[in-house]
Specification:
With 552 residues, the chain is of the alpha+beta class. Helices cover 43% and strands 13% of the residues. Among the domains are: 130 residues; 128 residues, Cytochrome c-like domain (Cytochrome Bc1 Complex, Chain D, domain 2); 81 residues, Lipocalin. The longest helix has 19 residues.
């Protein structure tokens, strides 16, 4: 009931001053009245009407009269099923619908009438007959209706799919549902009806549907169907078990099914995994506890550049197991990153002579690497320490060291790959949980510090700028009638809001920040897409969640 394109600056200011922006999502209430006032209407006195008159009132042009007649007929004693069936078969649709539901309410609706109406050339009557009489039909009845050419209307197909759901334990019914899905893939209504019809049997349906092959289309609609079927399958199999309870072993079958979709069917694997990821992004979600890491998440043959790798890492959030890195807040390394880290691990014994083979450090000689902020902090600093060395004094873990660590840039073995691998190994060993370092980043560090030939001091390193990873968040985000601007300055992220000004964002986690606007404390959460890009943010304010979408 409002349009931000026609909101004046003056009105916008009043909205903020009077806090009219607070009840977001509550809509507006309007009173609608006839332009000519209340028309005069004459209503029959139905309470005293005969049964024939009530049946005749089912054809009245006023909806209240029809509904009242139907209500009174439901409790009227007597046998007038034949008269109601005649109305249900009559030429007029509206009274026929009332007759169908009157018969259903009196428990007098017959299977033969339902089948007769379900194939009439009247979609409205077909739909209501299937809705009211689905429980009267057998699986064989529904399979015959499935083959009828008159069931062409979308609404009729939808209702037939829902009716079939009561027999979805049968293979032939699931096959018929799969055919409905394949032939109506562009219809969100029919696809949702099929998804509902197979509720609780999604894994069996998915296995058969994917095995059919020719039914599955690599389109946006095809991917969406697989995504939601996988999400529903996960929820159905997981159930309401407590977070400490073991997960349903059938969840492994769902993952096995996803992993089996390879090569030209790899897009199906991605879609299924995205469905599990979608569930994991729900508020308050608790992952399913498995006994061990499933094979799909430990496959070292998938490249970190593959869409399969990204989808598998995203779906991992729906599961956990002992030693699960994600549960510890650690992003698993791709096969390429593990290979690079191996090169750094092979080089480390040279470092271990001073820092200890387990990174514990040697008193009076070299500080520990385990838990050291110089190791887990900006790679731009750690890389320079490795290349050019570092001279004290420096405080590490509450202890002061005043020696000189020599650089390793002159060593032939210290190429960009080994430098990246060594940094990654240091940042992922002995309890360290920092992000890996790519070969490209290592090469950039070497190039940027190429002119340096002496060791760095702590103060010099701290003066070197580094990438906080905030670039993904920078931009403009639209919310209702306002545009929020996120900028990155030398001392961090800032948010600018019309009429409120600019405020710093204090990091709470990698994607969550706090800010104070107009004396009010807010939390800003940036939402990362599957590919890593950020196109929206959520403002947490007074218990409400307000989403803003990126404009630039």
């Amino acid at each position: 009931m409002q349009d931000d394109h026609f909101l004046t600056d003056e009105l916008r200011e009043q909205i903020f001053e009077r806090q009219l922006d607070t009840p977001i999502g509550m809509g507006r209430i309007w009173r609608i009245r006839h332009s000519k006032g209340k028309p005069e209407r004459a209503f029959p006195k139905l309470a005293l009407a005969s049964t024939d008159e009530l049946i005749g009132a089912l054809s009245h042009d006023n909806g209240w009269v029809r509904d009242t007649a139907q209500r009174l007929l439901l409790t009227r004693e007597g046998d007038y099923r034949t008269a109601l069936e005649a109305v249900a078969r009559g030429e007029e649709t509206l009274p026929a619908l009332h007759a169908i539901w009157t018969l259903q309410g009196r428990d007098e609706l017959q299977r033969d009438l339902v089948l007769e109406l379900a194939v009439q050339d009247d979609p409205h009557r077909q739909v209501q007959a299937l809705r009211a009489g689905a429980a009267l039909l057998s699986p064989e009845d529904l399979l015959i209706l499935h083959t009828q050419q008159t069931l062409g209307a979308e609404a009729v197909t939808l209702q037939l799919a829902l009716a079939m759901g009561q027999f979805a334990d049968r293979v032939d019914i699931r096959q018929a549902l799969a055919k409905l899905l394949a032939s109506h893939l562009a219809s969100p209504y029919v696809t949702q009806a099929v998804e509902r019809a197979v509720s609780g049997r999604e894994l069996r349906f998915l296995s058969e549907y994917l095995a059919a092959g020719t039914m599955v289309e690599a389109t946006a609609q095809g991917r969406a169907v697989l995504k939601f079927l996988a999400a529903n399958a996960y929820l159905s199999l997981r159930g309401d078990t407590a977070s400490s309870a073991a997960a349903n072993p059938a969840l492994l079958n769902l993952l096995t099914l996803a992993a089996s979709r390879e090569n030209e069917n790899a897009w199906q694997q991605v879609a299924l995994l995205r469905g599990m990821q979608w569930v994991a992004r729900r508020s308050g979600f608790v992952p399913a506890h498995l006994d061990a890491a499933p094979a799909i998440f430990t496959d070292g043959e998938i490249s970190g550049e593959s869409p399969l790798w990204a989808a598998r890492m995203a779906a991992r959030a729906a599961f956990t197991w002992p030693t699960d890195e994600l549960a510890l807040g650690i992003t698993p390394l791709s096969p390429e990153q593990l290979e690079t880290m191996a090169a750094g691990k092979a080089f480390y014994p040279r470092c271990g002579a001073c820092h200890g083979l387990s990174g514990e450090g040697i008193a009076g000689l070299a500080p520990p690497l385990a838990g050291a902020s110089w190791v887990t902090g900006p790679p731009e600093w750690l890389g320079r320490i490795i290349l050019q060395g570092m001279s004290g004094p420096v405080n590490v873990g509450g202890q002061w060291f005043d020696g000189v660590m020599p650089g390793h840039r002159q060593l032939q073995e210290m190429d960009d790959r080994t430098l990246a691998g060594l940094m990654t190994y240091l940042r992922r060993s002995w309890g360290n949980q920092a992000d890996p370092v790519s070969i490209v980043v290592a090469s950039n560090i070497r190039t940027a510090s190429a002119g340096r030939d002496k060791a760095w001091t702590a103060s010099e390193l701290r003066a070197i700028p580094f990438d906080r990873g905030y670039g993904l968040f920078v931009g403009e985000y639209a919310i209702s009638f306002a545009t929020l601007t996120i900028t990155e300055e030398a001392d961090g992220l800032f948010i600018s809001v019309p009429l409120y000004g600019t405020s710093p964002l204090t990091p709470l986690s990698e994607t969550r920040f706090s800010a104070e606007e107009g004396g009010e404390l807010l939390e800003i959460e940036f939402v990362a897409e599957p590919g890593g890009e950020v196109n929206s943010l959520v403002i947490h304010r007074k218990g409400d969640k307000i989403t803003a979408f990126r404009e630039s």
